[in-house]
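Journal club side-thread
Mid-discussion, someone asked how the predicted structure for our own chain would compare to the paper's figures. Pasting it here so we can look after the session.
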Amino acid sequence: MTTQTQAITTGEYLRTRAPLTCALLTSLLFLAACGGGEKKTANDDDIGTGPRAPTPDDPPSVVIGGLLWDNHWAVNATESLTTNPAWVLRKADPLSGAQNNRTGNDTWRCKECHGWDYKGVEGAYGPGNSHYTGTKGLVDVIPQRSRKQIESYLKNGVFDPTVGAVVHNFGTGEPNLSDNQIRSLVMFLFDGGMIDTSQYIFEDTFNGAARGDATLGQSLYESGNGVNSCASSSCHGLDGRTILFDGTETLGSLAKDNPWEVLHKARFGQPGTPEMIAVRTWGGTDQDASNILAYIQTMLQ
């Protein structure tokens, strides 16, 4: 079939402000209808009968927490945050000597310090990555803390003598997240949102190959729920080239370049783009996401 290629300018592959009607991995939205999915739990996000963006007043959920981890200012349409005071604590990359020089909104994103794999400096955002900050990951830290401790830390922050100010106060500080949104982040961290991504992506040498079944992934990619699929001409097309990120990045190359980001967005959706509904919301599993990722990574670049 013939498709018309779209060029989309993005900052880091999947920019959350890009107006994508059919965002990356739309087929993942419908995995429940494709079979093989787990049933939703009380922690999963079910906000109405049709796609809409979550609001600060929505009940807490793991999926909303995943969206906030990705980009809370896109979720809340907050466009002009000043640079995070804690940003001065970032370290230079030990390999290149360069610093992560992002400013403003980007410095408040959870993923910018702790990574898409939630492992911070111990993971894909380690030495040699342009997003290096030297920040510890949370996979091993969170189990050592209580929910009450983390909720208070996220809402009120702590005073840092090096900065000379309270930092990490996402509730009482400039991000101004609601109490329900803070609780959504806590649920994300404690209730299965944050996972060991090495279960689904080979990470021994950070090669990023999906630990999935590409054959099963192809079926899900091409069939969707029988009505909507990622392979349709209005989405990514059979070859994954209908939408180009940064004007040149195909879906296949994107899945190879940053599979951790793709996996996260597949599981939780795209902030500011409610049309991309999370795998969890539709009853799909993390393994379903890994299967589709495995297939996409076989596409020609």
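Post-session note: The radius of gyration is 18 Å.
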